[in-house]
Model the fold of this input.
Amino acid sequence: GMQTAARLMKVYLTRRIPQEGMKILSAAGVCEVSLWDSDEPVPRAELLRGVQGAHGLLCLLSDKIDAEVLDAAGPNLKVISTLSVGFDHLALDEIKKRGIRVGYTPDVLTDATAELTVALLLATARRLPEGVEEVKNGGWSSWKPLWLCGYGLSGSTVGVIGLGRIGMAIARRLMPFGVKRLLYSGRTAKAYAAEVNGEFVPLDTLVSESDFIVVSCSLTPETQGLCDKVFFSKMKNTAVFVNSSRGSVVNQEDLYDALTSGQIAAAGLDVTTPEPLPTNHPLLTLKNCVVLPHIGSATYSTRGVMAALSANNLLGGLQGTDMPSELTV
Ligand code: NDP
Ligand code: DGY
Done:
């Protein structure tokens, strides 16, 4: 009735999310949900309108949550729950200043993202999209000794930039392919790297000695534009570059130059700037560049678990209790 409705806290969802999350929100009976009822991103003006007076906000990585959004929400806002592990789209300083708690989705997407990254690495190194295309367009004339040759993991050196949850899961999956050395770089050495015989090395060493470079760090002011002209110039001409972190870690003009000049062999990107990458983007004209539409965590079960976790984070924040995955940095 009216009295119950008045006590319900208001939450705003910036998108339709998997039913696993919606069920949890409705079963809790503590919030009234309004959402941008679409599979496409909420227009900025709609977000600023929809969030007004909300106690809780559930957002996606495509929503920039900055001072303007927080001001539009107003003083009720207690919690922001993002359906992602990455949080570079959240202005954390502004959020913390207002005492708002933040939930995110670490761990539950690690396996799916690592699996996709390995798939992208192999597809890029062994030129799978090119091969599939040749079969369809008649380019397959015969078995030829050097046609569609690429690079293999066996006996190789792999460099992981950012040996976090996902980076480590990638390393674990790559070692059984016969990788000889596993290098990694980051801010600190990790004890758990011993499991993959990981060697903590300066970035320069990783870049110049690796046959495969996998970027799996978070996007921060420090990693923004990390992979630039100088970076690519230090790579082996036979090396393969893979990025499944965030597009902005890479300077795409410099990557284009490195791929066209033969400075590096190939690149596989699950993330770009912007997203979507315009269909006329120069990178898409290159056979040695494989671009995927940010599908690292895209398995049905993972997305369901992410939705459930983000709903439970939201509820914890609304009720002032523990959140299963609270961002405390
Ligand atoms: P973690 O926090 O576990 O790992 C992030 C790693 O980044 C840390 O190990 C950290 O290492 C490293 N890092 C931070 N700064 C630097 C730096 N300056 N140089 C090198 N490494 C650095 O996060 P996850 O592994 O769970 O996720 C990583 C990222 O992957 C997310 O932030 C997100 O952007 C992206 N992602 C992409 C997906 C996709 O669909 N493609 C899916 C899921 C996540 P250290 O502690 O030494 O600083
Ligand atoms: C994340 O969670 O940060 C990914 O980019 C999408 O799952």
